[in-house]
Write a structure and sequence with these properties.
The structure holds two protein chains of two kinds. Chain A has helices at about 135-140, 190-205, and strands at about 5-10, 20-25, 25-35, 40-45, 55-60, 60-65, 70, 80, 95-105, 105-110, 125-130, 150-160, 160-170, 175-185. By secondary structure, chain A is mostly beta strands. In chain A, the strands form three sheets. A six-stranded antiparallel β-sheet of chain A has the order 1-10-9-4-3-2, with no helix packed on it. Chain A has a four-stranded antiparallel β-sheet with strand order 5-6-7-8, with no helix packed on it. A four-stranded antiparallel β-sheet of chain A has the order 11-14-13-12, covered by helices on one side. The longest helix of chain A is centred in the C-terminal third of the chain and has 18 residues, at about 190-205. Chain B has two domains: about 1-70, N-terminal domain of TfIIb; about 75-275, Naphthalene 1,2-dioxygenase Alpha Subunit, Chain A, domain 1 (Alpha-Beta Complex). Chain B is about 20% helix and about 35% strand. Chain B has six helices and 17 strands. Chain B has helices spanning about 5, 15-20, 95-105, 110-115, 215-235, 255-270; strands at about 10-15, 25-30, 30-40, 40-45, 50, 55, 60-65, 85, 90-95, 130-135, 140-150, 160-170, 175-180, 185-200, 200-210, 245, 275. In chain B, strands 8, 9, 10, 11, 12, 13, 14 and 15 form an eight-stranded antiparallel β-sheet that branches. Chain B has a four-stranded antiparallel β-sheet with strand order 2-3-4-5. The chains are: A mainly beta, B alpha+beta. The interface of A and B includes residues 28, 68, 83 and 87 of A.
Chain lengths: ~210, ~280
């Protein structure tokens, strides 16, 4: 399979100095933003004892594991082991790093060696992310105006007006997450209600 | 197929006082359904293949699904006069029973998981301590463990350097001895008895034998439950769920000597229920 960019969240949902869980095609990731705003995506597993790094805490430009406080810096290298403060951690203690970029208000991840950039989404603004317990086919069935496979796009009726929407599909272990964008200038509250209604209709129609 | 050396060990399956009070506990041991109940004044554990060998100790009911390789381990302190024996109850954790035991043996996580209670930054250093397998009892022991603690016990006032000893007397049980704030010449004793429901699910029964005549029972239990619920947030988020016995999979340090010894001890004895043998 060709490595490709997957949307794993919206920029607005990841403030500075926060870590969150992300995914790339079944691979769990820790996606985090440093105190100065630098975004990174790493394998969601501390090399020490396997704890999820997405539960960790950000200090400055580092992410620390919540279990034993091991500190990891840029490029995933271990910088500090609190149980042994005088020790310089060997360079071999390293978390696998993924490519992670922010574009159009969307956080995209891909394997580290991925070339090129994600598809640009012009004229759209980020709306919100929503989780569904059904598959993509069910979404397309209840909203025929949408089309696509990993990026569902179309002109749908929101509060009586035609509105362009874009739903970026992310497959997870327990279903689907859609990262939604809508036309710049659209009524975001109405669009959010449309999205919730879409979820209700799609989940009623089909299960994952 | 579960290895005979796993089946021939003792496992906690209930709190004895609850069963004696007439409760019937429908539960699971090593993946199989079992029932714990009183029949003709005796506590009986019944599995799919009939009655299991049963013994009662330290407030809990222990069962052996196979032929016991040895009697249940002793905790001599449980018999000392003046100690308060506290059955804390049960905490269900979605993790390998072996991961639950390993976490109990770990001190380096105190400042980060039990922040401002069992540890606090910047007091994070784990000093060198001693670990060995005792030849007479075939138990893992860690001694000369010290750690700075802001509130070592419910009865502690202010921070102290706590001394610890750890002991693994059975594959899914561990006992610790720590400085007793009320009696500097004695040790408080805390155990966790882990019931392996399956390889990735367990019921943890903490138990204490303390010198503390003043703290109300409910507060002692609440304190331990708070600690174990903090541990649960870790245990349910470790990858992989099974405890890796392949040394290439995780990166231990000197602070993890007890965990290293525990993993080797399990591997050598073939006690691999809840363990993962290959790197992944």
């Amino acid at each position: 399979m060709t490595p490709r960019w997957t949307a794993t969240g919206l920029s607005q949902d990841l403030p500075k100095a926060v870590a969150m869980a992300g995914h790339w095609q079944g691979q769990d990731l820790a996606v985090w933003r440093s105190a100065t705003g630098r975004l990174q995506a790493w394998n969601d597993r501390c090399p020490h004892r396997g704890m999820r790094l997405s539960h960790g805490f950000v200090r400055g430009e580092t992410l620390a594991c919540i279990y034993h406080g091991w500190v990891y810096g840029a490029e995933g290298g271990c910088k500090h082991i609190p149980a042994h403060p005088a020790l310089t951690p060997p360079a071999t203690i390293r978390v696998a790093v993924f490519a992670c970029v922010e574009q159009d208000g969307v956080i995209w991840v891909a394997p580290a060696d991925t070339l090129g950039a994600p598809t640009a989404l012009r004229g759209l603004q980020p709306l919100r992310s929503i989780s569904l317990t059904c598959d993509v086919a069910a979404v397309l069935l209840v909203e025929p105006a949408l089309s696509g496979e990993d990026t569902l796009r179309g002109l749908v009726q929101i509060a009586g007006q035609a509105c362009e929407v874009c739903l970026l599909v992310q497959h997870g272990a327990s279903g689907l997450t859609l990262h939604a964008l809508c036309a710049v200038g659209a009524d975001r509250i109405a669009a959010s209600r449309w999205l919730e209604d879409l979820r209700r209709r799609a989940e009623r129609k089909g299960t994952a | 197929m579960i290895a005979p050396q796993v089946l021939n060990e003792w496992y906690p399956v209930a709190m004895a006082s609850q069963i004696r009070a007439g409760q019937r506990r429908l539960t699971q041991l090593l993946g199989d359904p079992i029932t714990v109940e009183v029949q003709d004044c005796a506590i009986v554990v019944t599995g799919q293949g009939g009655a299991l060998r049963v013994t009662e100790a330290f407030g809990h009911v222990w069962a052996c699904p196979g032929t016991p390789a040895h009697p249940l381990f002793p905790i001599p302190e449980a018999l000392e006069t003046g100690r308060r024996l506290v059955d804390v109850g049960v905490v269900r954790v979605k993790c390998s029973p072996l991961r639950a035991v390993e976490n109990f043996l770990d001190i380096a996580h105190f400042p980060f998981v039990h922040t401002d209670v069992l540890g606090a930054e910047p007091h994070t250093e784990v000093n060198r301590y001693e670990v060995n397998i005792r030849a007479d009892s075939d138990e893992v022991w860690a001694t000369k463990v010290t750690f700075y603690q802001p509130q070592a016990a419910k009865s502690a006032e202010g921070g102290i350097v706590t001394q610890y000893m750890y002991r693994v007397p059975a594959p899914t049980a561990a006992v610790l001895y720590k400085t007793c704030p009320a009696r500097p010449d004695a040790w408080d004793v805390i155990g966790i008895f882990v019931q392996p429901l399956s390889e990735e699910l367990c019921d943890v029964w903490p138990w204490m034998a303390l010198y503390d005549d003043t703290t109300p029972q409910a507060e002692l239990i609440a304190f331990q439950q708070m600690i174990f619920l903090q541990d649960r947030s870790i245990l349910e988020n470790q990858i992989p769920r099974l405890l890796p016995l392949d040394p290439g999979m995780e990166v231990p340090t000197q602070a993890d000597l007890t965990s290293i010894a525990y993993r080797r001890w399990l591997k050598k004895r073939g006690l691999t229920y809840g363990a993962q043998m290959v790197a992944a």
